[in-house]
Amino acid sequence: MTSSDYQGLEPVAVVATEFEAQTKAAVLDSEGIECKVITASPAWTGSLSLSSSFNGAAVVVKSEDLERAKAILENCVADSVDLDWDEVDVGEREDYLPVGPVGRVPRLAKIALTIFLLSLLAWLLGTGINLI
Q: 3-80: which CATH topology?
C-alpha cells in the first residue's frame, strides 16, 4: 500500500489501542462508511505509520464522510452509556469451572509446603552447607 492510497483520508478517531480502533471501525463499517485502521507500525511492515512517537491507532475515513462518521461514533457512545447492565441477558455459563476466589491456596498445601521447607532447611544444616 502506498501513501497515495491514504490521500483524501481524515482521522475520525485516534485511540490508545488497536482493539479500540478496530471496534470503532466495525461500527462505522456497519453503517456503510468505508474506513481503515492505521497503527503505529514501522514503515517496513508495509503499512502507513503516523509518527515515530505515536503508540496507538487511528481510524481514518474519506474526507466527505468525516462529519457523518463523527456523528455515528458520538451516537454509539451515547447509546452505550444508557445501558442498564442489570437488565442485560448475558446467557448461561459455558464452562463448569468452580466460581471461587482466585489465588487462594488450600490449607493442606500450605502445611505441606511448610513441612517441605523445614525439612530442606534441616537437611542443609545437617550436611554442613553454609547458608550465609
A: Alpha-Beta Plaits (3.30.70)
Domain locations in the chain? 3-80
Q: Are the beta carbons of 72 and 30 closer than 8 angstroms?
A: no
Starting at the edge strand that comes first in sequence, how are the strands of the sheet with 57-62 ordered? 9-15, 57-62, 35-39
Global confidence as pTM: 0.51
Cα(37)–Cα(61) distance, rounded to whole angstroms?
Answer: 9
For residue 38, list its beta bridge partners.
Answer: 58
Contacts of 38 (CB under 8 A, 6+ apart): 6, 47, 48, 49, 50, 57, 58, 59, 60
Q: Which three cell numbers stand for residue 24?
A: 470503532
Query: At CA 35, angle to CA 29 and CA 40, rounded to 5?
Result: 125
DSSP assignment letter at 20: H
Question: 87: buried, middle or exposed (CB in 10 Å: 19+, 13-18, 0-12)?
Answer: exposed
Q: What are the φ and ψ backbone dihedral angles of 108, each rounded to 5 degrees?
A: -60, -35
pLDDT in tens, 21-78: 999 999 999 999 999 998 875 544 454 555 555 568 899 999 999 999 999 998 887 7
